[in-house]
Amino acid sequence: MQRRILFQIVHSDALNFQTIPNFNFTFARTLATHVEEADPLYADVPKSRRTKSERKPYPTPMNVLIRRAKEEREARKAQPCRLLEEPPDNGLLVAQLVEVAHRVYRARESLLLGISKLVDFIPIQRCRYCFEVHIGHVGHEIRTCIGPKSGLRSAKHEWRKGGVQDVIYFPNCFHLYDRVGKPRIGHDERHIVRRIPAIVELCIQAGVDLKKYPTRRRTKPVYCIEGRIADFEAQTEKDATGNPNSEDCKLAIDFNSSTENGRIGDKSILDNLIIPEVQPSPEQRKSLRELSSVTLESWFEMISGAKKIMEKYCVWTCGYCPEIQVGPKGHKVRMCKASKHQSRNGLHAWQEATIDDLVGLNYVWHVRDLRGPPLVNNLKRYYGKAPAVVELCVQAGAHVPDQCRSMMRLDVVPPGRDEVDLVT
């Protein structure tokens, strides 16, 4: 309503701005921009970086980071030897986030299992030359390809069949056995330490215990002596094997047996779903709709839980490349090949990570009818976008979530091909 009133005021013919010498056009433009950004109904898709040399924006302003560093340095000078009391900096688990970590891990397994079932019903298209993904029987005609020799093809995509890895991907990071005692991986250890999905590493550090990826659990907090961590707790044989030896671990619920077997969510839906050859029957469509709803719920549960954990557990990403590392500090492996890596000797420019860095959110164009004509390049400003997981679940029958309703442009009716020239 505010946007409509402002539009009428600015574009009114009865209002003559020449008679108002004190009218500030900059203020009007700023107010209009503020109204557009503040209105959640007109929230747009997050914009990507313009050039590869441009650094990712800082989630926390630089002046706040500088102030925190000064406060930590002053506290270190005032008390060189102190006992760290706040988890997880002291090596202990955050009791409130242990169960959240288990839910995130279970939601990820349920999400992958659901997507693997849905891709058999809903076709996935991927460009041969770039990372563009489209959900539908026919790829769109929007010219947004940035792959090799895209200028010779007029930025047109060349589509081929995609899979689960094109809908969602989880970047890998180095697994830390002791996140406090040895928070960094050296360059010589790059082939020794295993790499696992970063969201799994985040769940492990937050309290999930997996036999494949052992980690050390402490019962007593560590000390900080002049900025260095000192641990006076003796490492027992049980800790050396990677099994938990902490009272905080008793708060966790044992979900490993259910997650390792892949039995997540509604078992009847996931197990009894039959893949049709042509089109699903009414009963299978009902099961498909239920499966898409379960998958979409797992997606939002994983994202919301990961955000809660990231408020306490540090996650770092490179400012120029997609590399990510979960832990108090980033690793020292010289593997960055992005812009200005020569000045850093191949080291990454670590900064605070966001949920977009932890989980690959691949945005795709929203299609109203899978059997309809492909999307046209001239009408791309009328089309909406959504994360590929959300678009896949919606096309399978799930309800459109309120979080993505604005960016999917459901309230916009695109004109037909014969009406393109009539649109101003």
Automatic annotation (TrEMBL):
<feature type="domain" description="APO">
    <location>
        <begin position="126"/>
        <end position="212"/>
    </location>
</feature>
<feature type="domain" description="APO">
    <location>
        <begin position="317"/>
        <end position="402"/>
    </location>
</feature>
<dbReference type="Pfam" id="PF05634">
    <property type="entry name" value="APO_RNA-bind"/>
</dbReference>
<protein>
    <recommendedName>
        <fullName>APO domain-containing protein</fullName>
    </recommendedName>
</protein>
<dbReference type="InterPro" id="IPR023342">
    <property type="entry name" value="APO_dom"/>
</dbReference>
